[in-house]
């Protein structure tokens, strides 16, 4: 089910923020102040995820220029996030990454945003079981300053996002919200008046 044009699901969860673990992280701190680009990814220390995290970190100033905070989320623990941030890049770590990384160990955030791979079911004896991989798909959400989801996309585990494409979606949204202009096919920010 799509969240487009709905309020982003609320949550409070542990997160790694600037290398430190915080217990009560929430997107509500951005309401009325910034757009939020929320990235779900499958696993720390995996093959594709570090490349996205590095690309996001390298693009933070571009997001900030567009009044957007970057926030990541996976189903790994906050301690694993911290270990990953403290691991050098040449060892598959993301040392130097500064944006918040949410720990969704209960898997409720990924589930509420519709990016939890797999589903709960019952076996033949009526016992709860999980079918599939209980980790997040690659989900991207752009949430406006009022807390409404204005863009969403989902990718399979092995397909990394293109960060310039996400920046283009953010530019298009801001152009519409600020200037009231629609964005035609192949629209680029430099086309804005």
Automatic annotation (TrEMBL):
Q: Of which family is this protein a member?
A: Belongs to the peroxiredoxin family. AhpC/Prx1 subfamily.
GO-annotated cellular components: cytosol
Q: Does the keyword Oxidoreductase apply?
A: yes
Spell out the SUPFAM superfamilies in the cross-references.
Thioredoxin-like
Q: Name one GO biological process term.
A: response to oxidative stress
- What Pfam family is a match, any one? AhpC-TSA
Biological role stated in the UniProt entry: Thiol-specific peroxidase that catalyzes the reduction of hydrogen peroxide and organic hydroperoxides to water and alcohols, respectively. Plays a role in cell protection against oxidative stress by detoxifying peroxides.
Query: What organism is this sequence from?
Result: Microscilla marina ATCC 23134
**Domain Thioredoxin stretches:** 2-175
Sorted keywords for this record are: Oxidoreductase
Name a GO molecular-function annotation: thioredoxin peroxidase activity
The protein here is known as Thioredoxin peroxidase
Q: Does the keyword Iron apply?
A: no
The signal peptide here is: none
| Residues annotated as the enzyme's active site | 49
